[in-house]
Amino acid sequence: MIYPHNQNRAMLLNACGEVVHDWTIDENRRPGNTAYLQPNGDILMTSRPASVGDDAIWAGGGGATIERRSWDNDVLWSFTANNDSLRLHHDFTVTPEGNVIAICWEVIDSLECIANGRNPELIQGGELWSDKVIELQPNGQGGAEIVWEWRVWDHLVQDFDSTKANYGVVADNQQLIDVNYGTVLNQPRDWHHMNAIDYYPFYDTAGQIIMSVPTYDEVWVIWHDYQFSDDLIWRWGNPAAYQRGDSADQKLFYQHDIHWGNGLGVNPGNPDFTKFFVFNNRVPNADTVGTHSEVAVISPIFDEYDGGYAFNTSTGRWGPEDFQWTYTQPGLSSTGLSSFQRLGNGSNLICNGRTGELSEITENGETAWQYRTPLLQGAPVAQGTELQMNNNLTFRADRYPLNFPAFIGQDLSAGMVIETDPTPLEVCQPLLCENGLACNYGEEGDCTFIDTDIDVAGPFMLGLVDSSLCANGYEVTDDGFVTLVPSSGGMETGYEWFITPEVEALMLASGFEILLNDLNSQSVAVCGTELTAVSGFFGDTTVVNYDGTGWYWPLYDGYTAPASNFETGCNDPDYCNFDPCALPDSTLCTVLELLAESNTTNGIVTAEAVGGTAPYTINILDENLQSIGFPISESDEPSFVFVGLPDGTYCLEVTDASGCSAISCVNVGVMSVEDLNADSFQLHPNPASDAVQLTLPAAWDVGAVTLRDAAGRSLATPNLTASGMLTLSAWPEGIYLIEIQHAAGTAIERVVVRR
Question: Which is more confident, 562 or 417?
C-alpha cells in the first residue's frame, strides 16, 4: 500500500506494480500522510486541503482529517481538527477496539510558554506548537469524539528559570521533557514534529504508545489510559535530550516510522514481535561529511510483571546500549519521510521516502524486489523517467500478506499500472491462454472451457435416447441403456469426462466398450451454445449446437445435457416410486405404509399414511378390495378419519403423489370368532424390525406359510404350522406379504420391515 504525496489515491499494488484496488479522496485534497487497511476491509486514511496558504497552523507533515472508509470507498465516519488552536499531523494508530490514536499540534501562547519555563529567545511568532495525542471514538453518527488525550505540555521539566513552573534537575527527571530542548526546524514553532505513533496492547486494561520525536532524536513510550503514571516510561536515541550523554551517545538521527514488530504478517511467537523497528534518516557518515540512512531494530527489555523497561541506574539511561541490528545500502539516503517493515518471512521492506524507492531485502542482504513510485509531483510519468529527489515523495509503504483477512472474497486480479508507456518485466507479462479448445484461446488469463449462458453449473449427463419409454430420451434402468455419466471440470486440457466405476461396468456389460473408451479420452469445451469435443480415442473433433435439451451426438444416438434440464427421482426398481425417466437420486426413494385402526363401538376409522409424498388420496374398499362407493378423500396431510361406517370389514387404500399405494384392513363392529378364523390373522409388531409374531386362529389347518416381496415374488417358506415367531432379520427394509394357506382358503397380510 502506498499513499504518495501530491495526489489523491491510496493504492494497493501487486508485485508487478499493478493497482489491484484503490481509495480516492476529493480532487481538492491531498494525503495527510498515512492510510492503513483494516482486517475487515475498511481503510483508515488521512487527508488535508490541497491549498494550505491560509491555514493558521501549517508545517511539513500537516494533516487535517481522519476518515474510515469501506472497501468500496464509502465514508463511514470522519473527524477533522484544523483550526487556529489544533491540527492533526503525520500519523495515527488503531486500538483493537477500533478507536484511533492520532498526533496533533496544539498552540501554546508565549505567556504560557514563559510561565512554564521556556526560554523567551526560543519563542518565535508569539507561540509554540506543542504535540499532544488524542484518542478518537466513533460516535455512531458519522463522526468521532475525543475520549482521551496525552499532552507533552503536562510532563515538563526545566532548569532555565527557578522562578517558573517545572523547575528541576533535568538529568534527574528522565521521565519528563525538557521544555528548552529541541532542534529548530524551518518552522520554528513546530517544537517536536512527531512523525510516527504506534500502539501495543500489553494488558487487557492498558496498552503502550510509542512516538517518534525527531527534533529530540528520540522515541518515547507512555502508558495509554493507565492508572499509575502517564509520564515517559522509556525514551531512547539521544540521552543529551535529558542531559545524560552527548553526541557520542546519540543513536537516532531525525528518525521516522517507529513501531512494534507485531505488524502485518508477523505473528505471536516470532522473535521480532515485541521489538521496535525504525527508519534512521540522518545518520552521520563515518569518513565523509554528510549523512546517509539506515534501518534498525531496537530490542529493549520489558518486565511485564513490574511493568517497566530495563534502566541503568549508573548511567541514568534506559537500555539497550545499542541497536540489535542495522542495515544500509548504497544510495539509501532520505533526510525525511520513509519507512521500514520487517516481513513475516524475515525479509525487510524499505521505503526511501524522498526518492519514492521501495526495496525488499532478504535476510541475506539480497534485493528480492524493487519499485519506484512513477509520479512527478503527483502526475504519472513514463516508465524509465529519471526522477530527481523529492519529485515523488512517498511517506510510507506497507506490505499486506496474501492471507490478510481484508482480502477474503475480494477481486485482486491485475489492474492498471500507474506509469505511462509501461514495459512489464517478463515475469509480469500477462499470461495468455494457449489451449485451442478453450473459449478464450489467445486471450489474457487462465484458459476457460465453460463460457455459456446455458445452466451448466451442475454435472453434465450423457445418455442414449429411448423415446419409446421416456419422451425426453433419458432412461435410468439396468436393461442395457447407457444412462448417466457425470463429469468433472477444471482440467488443464479441457473439461474432461469422469465416469463412475458403476456406470463404467454398466457400459461394458451393455456392449459400449468403444463409447466408454472414447468418452474417457475426450476433452470438452462449451462456448456459447456450441459444444466441442476432441477425441483422443478416435482422433477427431466434434462440434454440436445446443438444441434446447442438450447436445445431440449422431454417432452415439445420444445426448450430452445439463442435469439441471431434468427432474431427479428414485433410481431403485424395488421401491414403489421408482422413476425410470429421471436422473437418479436414491435419497428420493420412499416406502409408503398405511396404519389404520377402528373403534368397534361407534364406527369410526382412523388412518395415517407413513412415508410417501403428499398429497395423498384414500379410498375405502370392501374385504374383497372392491369399492363401496364411499367418496375418495384427498389431503396434503397424512391423517384421515372416517365416521359412520356400518359394521363389517374394510380395506383402506392410500395412494401418494408418486403413485405408490398401500392397503390396511380393519374391522368395524363386533366380529364373530368364526369370521376372524376364516379370513385373517394377527401380526405383532407391525412395522417389525427383526421378527414378527403370527397369531393364527386355532381352527386353521395350516398347509404352508410363504414370505413374498411387494410384487408377490416368493422369498421364503418358513416351517410354521401354527402361531409362532417369523424371523425377518435376513431381509432388507421394505414391504412384504405373509401368505397363509389353510384348509378353508388363503389369508394374506402385509408386514413392513423397518430398522
Answer: 417
